[in-house]
Amino acid sequence: MGVDTSARQYSEGAPGPDNSSVFCDGCRIDSLFPRRTGAGENGKDSGMLGKRKVLRLLVGLSLGLAFFGCVGLPRRRPPLDAPAQEQQVCKRRWRRHAVQPPVTQVPADPIPVEPLPVPPATSITTPTTTSPAPPDPLSRVPRPTGATAPPVTSPSPIAARGTPPSDPPPPLTPGLEPPPPPPTAPPSSAPQPDLPRSTPRTKVPVTPARTEVPTQPTPITPAVTNGPFAALRQLHQASTRQYARIDAYIVRLTRREFVKGKLQPEEVLLFKFRKAPLSVYLKWVGQAGRGREVVYVKGQHENKLHTLLAAGDMPFAPAGKRIALSPDSVFVRGASRHSITEAGIGTLIDHFGTLIDALERGDTRQGTLTYLGLQKRPEFIAPVEGVEWKLPPGAEEGLPRGGKRWCFVDPENHLPVLIITHDDRGQEVEYYRYDRFQYPVPLDDTDFDPDKLWGAARDQR
């Protein structure tokens, strides 16, 4: 009885007093995990169902990843109602991944070219009644076999000038052959005359007519377009042409010179110049040498350089005293690096042309020139054209060891506006700047007469 009760309790799952010691852990799971109060078989089934769902979800994700990894994601076509910018982006993406077919180049249809008009100054004569008429462009159209085409006549000069034809032909469509005209007579057994064949366009005397047209010659010197000195020659020619139209000019001159072993202070002068006879008038208007004036006319006024002294120019000589000295005097040459006869921009232009001629002959004894193009200088607002002049030793008296000189030309008036000279050590020895040009100006003898400028009474001082 006790045995049956214990067996029944085991079959029903009721715990016994020594149940944990009689059965092993593998055979009796309930001894390790006791049942919750009120829990039944439904709790176990719901746990198994959740595990199956998770397992199915993992298997489905694995199969989806494997499928899309091999095939790839589908590409979305742009909808028809999408914006134009989005459609363009989608189309570019689609074309980038799509296989492009080989590009085949289809030749374009030939475009009919009208024959060039022949000028009247040619050897072509007007067709007469005895000469055959020129071929018509419609004669190139193939005719049907056995049909007789209407005679094609060339328009007369009177009709070509203003009389319209009675039945104008229909306009031709570019790229299409015109239809053949309908036959006007039944085919006959008589031999038909051959239609005039089109003459090749190469035989039309168009080229000789174009070569016979006179052209305006361009006055270009070969040195301007050829050779390494083309830009230099062109620059010099422009300056020469401009200076040739000027008889006299007024300009402001700013100069700095290295004289007597030291650099002199900057001077600002009013400069008047006349070509014939050579006349120079200088008046110091800056802080240095204010009140000094110089007049020189070649061959006049005893051919001397007349000076109105400023304060401190000569010991024991008051300001305003007038003196006259020879241009070759030691006192005159010691006050400047150049003679009064070399004043002005004309001497530089002439020397520049002489140097280019020597360089084209291969003579470099006076130095070499290099065209620098447009250069930006702080003295001017607009760029100016620059030239570098390398002076060898002994080329000039003031540069016994040689040096460099830079000349700058205004591209508008083609006149020299700035000259800077350095010695072999890089020391500035000359600086001449020309600005505020005035030309043409009517300068006469009165502007260069010291007696009329200063008065004869000052000679007595």
What layout of secondary structure does this protein have?
Layout: H1 2-12, H2 19-22, H3 41-71, H4 84-97, H5 157-161, H6 206-211, H7 222-225, H8 230-244, E1 248-259, E2 262-263, E3 267-274, E4 279-284, E5 293-297, E6 305-308, E7 322-325, H9 330-333, H10 345-360, E8 368-375, E9 384-391, E10 403-409, E11 416-423, E12 428-438, H11 450-454
Antiparallel strand pairs: 1-2, 1-3, 1-12, 3-4, 4-5, 5-6, 6-7, 8-9, 9-10, 10-11, 11-12
Structure commentary:
The protein has 461 residues and is α+β, with helices and mostly antiparallel strands. It has a domain of 107 residues. It has eleven helices and twelve strands. Strand 11 and strand 12 form a beta hairpin. The radius of gyration is 54 Å and the shape is elongated. The N terminus is likely disordered.
Category from helices, strands and their pairing: alpha+beta
Shape descriptor: elongated
Q: What profile does the largest beta sheet have?
A: 12 strands, antiparallel
Level of helix content? 10-25%
Q: How far is the first residue's CA from the last residue's CA? A: 171 Å
**Helix-strand pattern, N to C?**
HHHHHHHHEEEEEEEHHEEEEEH
What's the number of helices? 11
The total beta strand count reads 12
Instruction: Tell me the strand percentage band.
Output: 15-25%
Overall radius of gyration: 54 Å
Poorly predicted tracts of residues: 1-40, 122-131, 137-166, 172-179, 202-225
Roughly what is the average pLDDT, rounded to an integer? 74
